[in-house]
Design a protein that fits this description.
The complex is a heterodimer of chains A (276) and B (175).
Chain A (H helix, E strand, L loop, with lengths): L1 H6 L1 H21 L7 H34 L8 H35 L4 E9 L6 E4 L12 E3 L4 E8 L4 E5 L6 E6 L5 E6 L5 E4 L12 E4 L11 E10 L5 E7 H4 L4 E5 L10
Chain B lengths: L1 H23 L1 H6 L2 H11 L3 H19 L5 H19 L5 H26 L9 H44 L1
Helix pairs in contact in B: 1-3, 1-4, 3-4, 3-5, 3-6, 3-7, 4-5, 5-6, 6-7
The chains are: A alpha+beta (276), B mainly alpha (175).
Chain lengths: 276, 175
Amino acid sequence: MLEFVIQKKAALMLGVLLAAMGFLMSRSIHRTGSATPLEAAVGRATAPLVQGGSRAAGSVSRRWSSFSELRGSADRARALQAEVETLRADKRRFERERAENARLLRLVDLKASLPESTIAARIAAASPLEDRTILLDRGRAGGLRAGLPVVTAAGVLGKTIEVTESLAKVLLVTDPASGVAVAQQDGHYAGMMVGRGRRSCQLLYVPTDRLAVAGDLLVTTGLDDLFPPGLPAGRVLSVRRAPDGSMEVDVRPEALAQDDSEVLVVLSAPALRLGP
Amino acid sequence: MKKAIFGFVAVAAALGVQVALSRLLPAVSERLDLLLVVVVYYGVSGAQMTAMLIGASAGLLQDVWFGVLLGRTGVRKVMTGYLVGAVGSRLALEGPLAHAPALALATIADHATGVVAGELIGAPLADPFSWMLLQKALVNAVVGTACFALVGRLTRERERRRTARARRPALRGAR
């Protein structure tokens, strides 16, 4: 018996680990919003790593930016040249700051236009997996919880699915597990925008007698009881008719069209406005 | 045991670097799985059990921070550790010419396991098979081979110093 175990130890270990993973999946598949105890424990233990990585990236980025601006310093022996370079660097910084201000202004405008209360957050990391998720730099301590819509100035981005003390995981609208109730801007047709991985979505349940056209802007309807109505969700990229007569509508999410690093988390779910 | 502890530290470091990369070079981060590189490192060195354990911890970490379903990436990484470890314990996978294909094939095996597991549990992966997979295989192979070469060089240097240090008192004694 012992000899058998020693001979087959790798296969036995594989079986044990796969069974453990299967058990975790079975526990995880039925959870609603809150993290399992193991996830919470691992999250707490490794949160400093993730935050450290994110902060290090910010620091490297700033230093690289300064380094890039100083690379030509050898050529700037003459005072006039140095002054010109400094002015150029200032201009670049002002342009960067102006772009950041514009982004923040758009976010402030969006915040003001939303009747729901919101919290601003920054993107801390993006998933390297096929699961389309990102991490935000705010968590429970910042007032976030699972199941909150996340939007950018350009449109809807996703929803929070797990929240630790200082970070929040967001499932992007491009993940196949995501769905957003949308309608064409003028209300010609409505459907469900479902993720398809990478940077695209598809529009499902569009009535076949309604004509979707490439370039149509889709906005949220609020019928999913998650996203506030009227927010830009995506733009129709292409429309094909499938052999069975149904429409295949490719959509590019508006929020992914721009690389915003600041987002708004909507704290209160929209109230469904039925009737007059 | 020592090997496994080093492995867990490497996984933790890989997670930090992966997070930093996702902000600094998102296009590279999307195509590079540093935690898989760590699993393959132990696999090609023939430490099959360690590769599986490291795979389980790496997968769990990725699931906790980036995954939707806890355990899904764990299954992928455990299977990859098992497969690469099985090959690594039978064949001498040494040098860039063996490491690069091993990393590329491990990337494909990792993804294929994810696709099969996704179909079995009714939660299919977003990108079943696409050009992206080949790009990932290529990037993992290039970066992973470079990392293996660097770690190999550091290990050899440490061994050389240790041997030199051990010889010195012996020589003194002989005199």
